[in-house]
Amino acid sequence: MYSVNVPVPGRVRQLANRLHPDLIGFETVREDHSCLLKRLGGADHVAQLQHRAHRALEGTPAVEAAITGIDYFEDPPLGSAPVVYLAVDSPGLEDVHAALTEAFEPVDGLEGGDYVPHVTLARGGDLATARRLADREIDPIRWTVSELEFWDGTDKLPVSRVSLPS
After folding, report:
1. Tag placement on the chain: N or C end, fewer CB within 10 Å?
2. What is the CATH number of the domain that holds 54?
3. Are 86 and 119 in contact, with CB atoms under 8 Å apart?
4. What order do you get walking across the sheet with 83-89 strand by strand?
5. Crossing angle of the two packed helices 91-103 and 46-57, in degrees rounded to 10
6. Are strands 83-89 and 63-73 parallel, antiparallel or unpaired?
7. What is the total count of domains within the chain?
């Protein structure tokens, strides 16, 4: 599966690392952190997927984003529950997501109107622990998203980057 992801600044990774001890009881804890912007599909025609994504993003300006808190999905449409995440507030990223859903079919229940920008921390743990984490206050982390990554989900690495002019 390929996707377009938003790389997050080191401050977001540092926050995730500080929260790590409280996530140990979860089934899976993410070690790499980014914000999934749009799933693109399988690997049959990687170059075509990449080209379509780059064309859909042509002229897209840099956008502002902020981590505003910790939250969770109690009953996610896929995978184990709950999913604890860092909430991302960014109308600009939501606009970019909408543009990508015009070029690529949205995944029902996850994209389009159901899309929630976030950085996953852990999944498959205790609901009470997820609630306690979501009650924590954190200082907002703001940044400018000036590039996006074309991500290879199989090899778990960026294949290319798309600059967003400021």
Report:
1. C
2. 3.90.1140.10
3. yes
4. 28-29, 118-123, 83-89, 63-73, 141-145
5. 130
6. antiparallel
7. 1
